[in-house]
Amino acid sequence: MSVFDNLDSVMEDVENDLEEKDAVREVAMKTCRQIVRLSSDLIYALHQKSSDRSIVEGFRELRSRVTEVNTILHGHHEVYYSGFVEGAMQEYVEAMLLRAAIAGGDMPSHSQLKVNSSTYALGLADLIGELRRSALDCMIEGDVRSASSWVDEMEKLYRALSRLHFPGKVVEIKRKQDVARSLLDRTRGELAVTVASRATKR
Question: pTM of the prediction?
Answer without folding.
Answer: 0.89
